[in-house]
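If you are new to this repository, start here. Below is one unmodified record pulled from the training split, so you can see the exact layout before writing a loader.
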Amino acid sequence: MKIKFDDFSYYPALRTRPAEIEGYSELRELTKNKLVPIMTLGAWPKAEGLAESIGKLISAVGDRPCIVDLTRESLYQNNELKNLLNPDSNFKSWCDFIKSHSNFIPTIQIVQEAKQSQIIRQTRLLETIGLNKVAFRITDYTNDTTKVINAISAMDSPENALIIIDAGYIRETMAASIAACVAAINEIRDEIPEAIITIISTSYPSTVTPFLDVNSDRKSGIINILERELHQAIGVDAAIYGDHSSIHSKVYVATGGKYTPQIEYPLFDAWAIERRPGLDGDGYIETAKALTMKYPEILDEDYWGSKKIINVASGNNNGMKVRSKWIAARVNIHIEKQLELSVMDALDEDF
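And here is the target side for that same chain:
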């Protein structure tokens, strides 16, 4: 299988948490075929090993190519994951893992204790196996960018690499995020003009409470999507669009207890929120009905997540009384719509 990174117009990033994997898994086959998702492995939920996460990932992507990374969040690391991050023998454990999965495109692991020579040797080895592709993820602009440039310069071909500039949560740092992304892109292109770059970010908040409308008794709200604003400010020709698939960039531990029935319906440029405080799981029926009345276009959508909203609005709430299912529905609709936007943007650029 031969792929070219610049053939793709949208790079969604997800983690192998059950809700995120389900949202991706239920995408239409045509949609999946147009994506190379960025999947971050972790112990989600916390487990002894990684077998469950890896199994769900393989089941979701099939034999399609996907970029695979490892979580840096210590709460979701276990001994098996820490072993994969070990730089000994030029990240031998990580390289051996990738060798056993022919459709996995490895993210080059850059850990603080690794020497530049270990990063370069890891890169050169991983470029020669599987799909002959690698990815680099820049989260620390100051320390990562130079290491990435040095590693790509040692590759057989820079076109075999995708550079992921991960801006994280941007809602409160837009100006600084734009400046940092532009500086990193310029630094990379000064050394590697042909570099293929994607910018991923998220504006989905850790809580929707500040976005609820007081005029609706805090039952409804709108959250503007800012990821494309960031991309456009940087320059649509400077990098390929990507995002965190409508997920906040930091994982918070679930506190338990009852959740307010809440559904987030992705529009093309915002998330529409409906919630019914004080109601239990059956409150989702009322919540879904409110969404279909406000946004009747849901009824015409062929997405798995939209069909879940329609089914529940009709009174069928089986299997949809838990928060994780609605996160999966949000992820599913978001990716479908952002791919549509990206394809349309790409077509516009061709004319």
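Two things worth knowing about this chain: The domain at 5-350 is CATH 3.20.20.70 (TIM Barrel). The longest helix spans residues 323-350.
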